Amino acid sequence: MGEEQASKSSRINKFVNEKILPPVMKFVNTKGVKAVQDGMVYALPFIIIGSIFLIMSNFPLKVVSTALQNSGWAAFFTQAYTATFGIISVWAVVGIAYVYVKNEGFEPLPAALTALSAFFLLQFMQVDSPLKAAKASGITNAAGKVVVSGHAVAQNLDKLPHAMQSFIMSPVTNVFNITWLGGQGMVAAIIIGLLIGWSYSAMMRRGWEIKLPEQVPSSVSKQFSAMIPAGVDLTACMLIFAGFKAFGNTDLLQWIYKVLELPMQGVSDSWAGAIVIGLAVPFFWFFGVHGGLIVGSIASAFLLPNTAANAALYHAGKLTLANGAHIITNEFYNNFINLTGSGITIGLVIFTVFAAKSQQMKAIGKIELIPAIFNINEPFLFGLPLVMNPFLAIPFFLTPLIVSLSTYALIAFHILPPLNGVAAPWTTPAVLSGFLIGGWKMAIWQFLVLVISTLLYFPFAKRYDKILLEREQKNAAAEAKTEN
Question: What is the pLDDT of residue 194?
């Protein structure tokens, strides 16, 4: 029976390693995916710093929140949030183009600035008149209280001459719309960053550059070298903008948002998304491939816009599913599916520290205890190991799947609130991260997740520990016999 099971396991491993992993790894290591993966890192400091400002502008305690509003400090924190987390797509487009061109061996900063210029060029530089929204929801004061109803606004506008109505209701031009600089522009930022990085590198590789004499300082020469690729890219972007405006009365960013981003968010933010994300990380890790790196680099394109959208709703005081809040966000992935490490292995840590009898599990448990608090479990993955270990495969796969589905259900049925968009660093310990990303209810749920992990891992860990102990006793007996 054991030989038959081992043979079956060997066939599965061979199939995965020969048929599944090669194309996945080939995709993950493509220039575009590497650029997105490494380029998004440049946005991380602004996301985390912006999250702090987001918390301060909407402090969880009502008495503190009211005091900040009345003192005017909430407005200052809002300004800081808007200029950091609120323009996440700006950091993304710059970082992605920068990394792509840098990996190709060319000076990256001119390409990054070209991508930023293209990102601005391809969107309408206008916002709707504030009165357009006021006609529907009314005029509010600094505290968010409606002081003039939408009906009253509409009645007063209707009394004005038609020409004046048209003038004051027309869009405000020559301004950036921060809606498209935030989460709603993320997919467009990724696409533009990649296209500019690719085209800029291709032109530089073909020698499309202005070469100045050697006597010219290199800092000046490099900028002239970038002039032709940047000029070609920006001219092409101008023509694209003109085409969308002339034939669709829209711009590229709005088109991408409607055609690509909204469907992508719908797929990721679903029961199917919860299942796929919950299973994908342990699946790759089980076969020795960095599951967090693979899934994170792909999923971030879907989940970061969800995070940014929830942050905007939280900041506006409208964080509900009815208002369009998302259930699955980047924090759902970081702070639940990967809580205490891939596979949510805290239950296994608790067993090895307090209940293990074999020396192997005791030793690795002492090593893993502190890293697990900060959501790091590579010592377990490779040292226990969990990689290619059939004895612990069931809880390793099952725990994140159960947690993913149950967390989704608790939010979907309004037992837990949607995640607020605060980006707690992935090393933030459990319970604390729950409080930051969703308040006291989410902190309690994270604690219960730790209990679930313990209950699921204990019986399998106990069986594996028994096997290791018998093996150690057998080896000790054999060594003693050899010495005698």
Answer: 96
